[in-house]
Write a structure and sequence with these properties.
Blueprint: H1 3-6, H2 22-31, H3 34-49, H4 57-64, H5 72-84, H6 97-109, H7 114-124, H8 130-133, H9 137-140, H10 149-165, H11 173-183, H12 187-200, H13 202-211, H14 221-237, H15 246-252, H16 258-271, H17 275-291, H18 295-311, H19 313-317, H20 320-323, H21 332-345, H22 351-364, H23 373-393, H24 398-407, H25 415-430, H26 435-445, H27 452-465, H28 469-483, H29 495-504, E1 509-514, E2 520-525, H30 532-535, H31 541-547, H32 551-570, H33 576-599, H34 608-621, H35 628-660, H36 671-679, H37 689-696, H38 707-710
Antiparallel strand pairs: 1-2
Length: 711
């Protein structure tokens, strides 16, 4: 069995591909310089860990490595070798060389160099044989009074190890460490001593904690964490003592160390389910969420807040605005989790503030220049989804949400604008009272919309939900203004562009090339001119999209004009002359689009489906098609789709609400009856509101009888 299987104090990877010359290494270890000895000893340590023991090497290390005159690093490597070497022979008896080892370690424990003492004390912590440790006890104790904190810290470690492994060798270790803890000023030394008492003599540790309860807030971070660990351990063993430590926990919640605050909040939640305790812990989680810069820490804090939301929904709703401060982080995982948590905590009381924050975040993305476009698009989509879900759940803030959403239609928000127009369509269908305002917003934004899918959605809304004569007139005129002059394209350039076009035309380019057979030839290259190159960039975005070959936008345009013209014809009090004029203009747009799409002047020809749809629109304007297909069928189909979607969302919300609902068979906790259950031992103790009030007001609860005793 190799030393690696017997010892666990040292693990090093070893490459056995190269051959090792043992005699040469031994000669370097005996007579080489310091660097050669270090290299040779490292090689022997690797061999020993992998079961390749060298006979008589232990005596060589004692003679030539562990001498007081040796270099400090070399002696430290010698101690590493002593950790892994076999200390007993095949008969189970201690090797004679171990006497020399004990003497050497004892000399190191008394060495004037503090780092040599510290290394020797750490070596003692790796010894698992009482016969080796026993001669060193008298040399370990004086190190507790050494002037250097490094030595005292490792001395406490050594005493802790000896007492845990061989209690009979130093039975008064708790008393020694307790006295050391009372007089020590170094933070690391105090932490090691307190941890030793927590693990070896818990009663002494508790007594020290209670005697210094007023000084706990001024302790160092590591010592405070050890105190919290002790509190959790004590409360698990004796739940009746939970209320006695609430004052310490509340004091540590105000610590300047983030780790202490986090552990204090976790401890408080584990000991109490009272709303005051949950609120205090959650508030500290939110504070850490806004102050810590590490993304992993923020994700952990959000997970803790998610867990609190399951059982303390109302308490968490009060802290929603503090949680939303995490949106300032550039990390998308943090933003996504924050918005998911926020949507579960939105109520009628805080929904307006949430809408305001989401609006600010959406507008802030416009000024962001140091973030990649993909991240911005994803974040905008998250904000748009949050605004939409909020508007659907709380109709009284829907106007504000719709105004925010429609304001970003004309901006180049990427994929987010497509989601915006879909949500606007849904809100327009669900909330009829918002339709006039939405139509006005769309008419204002139409000249600035450049995304084809958004243009199609805006045209569909204008054609579907414009009802009054004024709305019909404004929608028809706005669409015609964005279409521009007809026809869409001509084979001859405009007079204004003729001079410019003549300047931009390039003469054919000639160049001499070498052919495959070695002869020379002249090659003429002429750049073909296309129609859309001079006309696509002119006019409103709607016209530019059509000239660039976006026939789906053209179909949506024809459909919207057809619906508006039919509605005008069905409106009472409208003259026949106006009806004919509107229908004629709509037919002209449809015919022009159909002609330019089949002429070959545009980059692509119109497809059969789009052409058939435009022809159907012309026939509907001419009265050859039933108008109910245009006015009722689309809205009914979309209304059914929206209702099915809402029904599915309602089922999911009800299912989620049922999981958070308190079951009828769950016990109701009455404070007046709790004392009897505690006195009878039928329930574990917990921290209630009265304990929190007493601790927060400074009332001492440790020396007075509990309510369980009064019963």
């Amino acid at each position: 069995m190799s030393a690696l299987e017997r010892q666990c104090t040292l693990l090093i990877n070893y490459d056995q591909s190269s051959q090792v010359d043992v005699p040469e290494l031994l000669s370097k270890l005996e007579g080489g310089d310091t660097n050669e000895k270090i290299d040779a000893l490292k090689q022997f340590i690797l061999m020993q860990l992998n079961g390749e023991a060298v006979p008589s090497l232990l005596m060589t290390v004692i003679r030539f490595v562990l001498r007081p005159q040796s270099e400090t690093h070399l002696r430290k490597l010698g101690l590493y070798y002593l950790e892994i070497v076999d200390k007993r022979g095949e008969d189970g008896k201690m090797l004679p060389e171990m006497i020399l080892v004990c003497n050497m370690v004892r000399m190191e424990l008394e060495n004037p160099n503090e780092y040599s003492r510290g290394s020797a004390l750490r070596f003692v912590c790796k010894l698992h044989d009482a016969d080796l440790v026993e001669p060193l006890i008298s040399a370990i104790r004086p190190n507790l009074e050494h002037r250097h904190s490094f030595v005292r810290r490792n001395a406490v470690h050594a005493i802790h190890h000896v007492y845990a492994k061989f209690e009979h060798l130093i039975p008064d270790a708790p008393e020694i460490v307790e006295a050391f803890l009372s007089n020590e000023v170094d933070l690391a030394c105090r932490r090691n001593a307190f941890l030793m008492l927590c693990q070896c003599d818990q009663e002494r540790a508790v007594m020290h904690l209670l005697q210094n309860i007023a000084e706990v807030p001024s302790w160092g971070e590591t010592l405070q964490l050890s105190a919290l660990e002790l509190i959790r351990k004590v409360c698990r063993q004796n739940p009746m003592q939970k209320g006695g430590y609430i004052r310490i926990i509340l004091a540590l919640l105000q610590s300047a160390a983030a780790a202490v605050v986090y552990e204090s909040a976790n401890t408080l939640i584990s000991l109490s389910n009272a709303p005051t305790a949950v609120r205090a812990a959650a508030q500290r989680f939110c504070d850490l969420l806004s102050t810590q810069s590490d993304n992993n820490i923020k994700l952990i804090l959000l997970d803790r807040l998610f867990e609190l939301r399951k059982n303390h929904l109302q308490t968490m709703q009060e802290l929603l605005m503090d949680m939303l401060r995490a949106l300032s982080s550039p990390n998308m995982d943090i933003r996504r989790k924050t918005l998911t948590l926020a949507m579960d905590l939105v109520t009628n009381r805080n929904v307006e503030d949430v809408i305001s924050i989401l609006k600010k975040e959406l507008l802030r993305t416009q000024a962001s220049t140091d973030v990649s476009p993909e991240v911005l698009y994803e974040y905008r989509q998250l904000l748009v989804h949050a605004l939409h879900s909020t508007a659907i759940r709380f109709p009284h803030v829907a106007p504000t949400a719709v105004n925010v959403l429609t304001d970003v239609l004309g901006d180049s928000f990427g994929p987010a604008t497509t989601d915006v127009i879909m949500f606007v369509k849904e809100i327009t269908e669900i909330l009829p009272e918002l339709r006039p305002g939405i139509l006005e917003k769309l008419l204002e934004a139409l000249p600035t919309i450049k995304v084809p899918a958004v243009v199609r959605g805006a045209l569909w809304i204008l054609g579907e939900y414009s009802e009054t004569p004024q709305q019909l007139r404004q929608a028809f005129m706005a669409i015609m203004d964005n279409v521009g002059s007809l026809p869409f394209a001509t084979t001859k350039p405009d007079p204004e562009d003729e001079e410019e076009s003549s300047e931009t035309l390039k003469a054919p380019q000639e160049k001499t090339v070498v052919l495959a057979d070695g002869t020379y030839a002249t090659q003429v290259a002429e750049e073909p001119t296309t129609l859309q190159a001079s006309q696509a960039d002119k006019g409103p975005p709607l016209r530019s999209l059509i000239i660039n070959g976006e026939y789906f936008v053209g179909v949506a345009l024809c459909t919207a004009l057809t619906k508006l013209a039919i509605k005008v014809s069905l409106t009472e009090g409208v003259s026949q002359e106006l009806v004919n004029k509107v229908k004629a203009e709509a037919m002209l747009v449809c015919a022009s689009l159909l002609r330019v799409g089949t002429s070959g002047l545009l980059p692509t020809r119109i497809n059969e489906g789009s052409a058939e749809r435009i022809v159907t629109a012309i026939r509907a304007l001419n009265g050859d098609v039933d108008v109910s297909i245009w006015l009722k069928a689309n809205r009914e189909a979309f209304g059914t789709l929206v209702r099915d979607k809402r029904a599915k969302e309602n089922r999911e919300e009800q299912k989620k609400a049922m999981s958070d609902q308190v079951q009828v068979f769950e016990q109701i906790d009455f404070g007046i009856l709790r004392s009897r259950r505690l006195a009878g031992g039928n329930e574990e103790g917990t921290i209630d509101e009265m304990d929190l009030i007493e601790a927060s007001t400074g009332m001492e609860s440790l020396n007075k009888p509990s309510r369980a005793d009064l019963s």
